[in-house]
Prior knowledge:
hpI Integrase, Chain A, 3 strands, mainly alpha, 13 helices, 296 residues
Amino acid sequence: MQNLNQDLVQFLEQLKARGVSANTQKAYNSDINDLLTFLLDTKQLLDLEAIRSWLYRISEAGASKATLARKTSAIKSFTAWRADLGLADQDPALRLRSPKLDRPLPKVASEISLAEVFDRMLFQATADNPVALMNHCAVELLYATGMRVSELAGLDLSDIDHERQLLRVTGKGNKQRMLPYGLRAKDAIDRWVGLGRPVVEIPTSSNALLLSSRGGRVGVRQLYDVVANQLATTTLGSAGPHTLRHSAATHLLDHGADLRAVQEILGHASLTTTQIYTHVSVERLRSSFEQAHPRA
């Protein structure tokens, strides 16, 4: 057991070296430690039967499929890593299957409702209201680029290529990608940087693109609240920034964008992840057909 604990420390160090997010490192540490505690309590070895027993106990305690899938992924990564390094004769979780997750279609705001949101925010974003200018810029960028809210919070002024209308975004695993943005997002950036940001900027302000009213970098929580408050006026009701990401992807496909281009924009490692948006578009097409076609 002592060797397994030492292996876990090394495993977490290589996750960090690979640029795996802190949240993922924390989750993997918790899940694998839980399994090691189970092995110690039940006096079992790290083998397939023990792993299945551990997962069964968690399932019986009421864990969701998503939780079981996450824990399975953590253990499979750990045991595969040990086997690859020769720390184990074989990978005991090689034949372990993750539970199939029910993937509900993502919530998507209509183009009309979002146009109303942006019109209202633009009306409020005046030179004497820097907070409204920042809010407008943030929401425009989330929808224009489909970026994650954490990626938006991490943007610096130096990440903007004003001439080519491109943003350099740092995503999961510290991977960078360039995202184009349109004229309306450009106008929102120019108004915020030219009129709003200088008002709230203080000597200790960082190079962050978005600043709070106190001059510090805007956090994810504040951006979430901004989006939730704006979308609360739509038929969707209160929804977070990921809804804008879902909406951007779906609307791009609705207007004929290539699926692989959308994959690149969203920063998905696998095309399979992006394909869920094709299902959303098909559902919208079917709904329109049923409402409008005389022989539907």
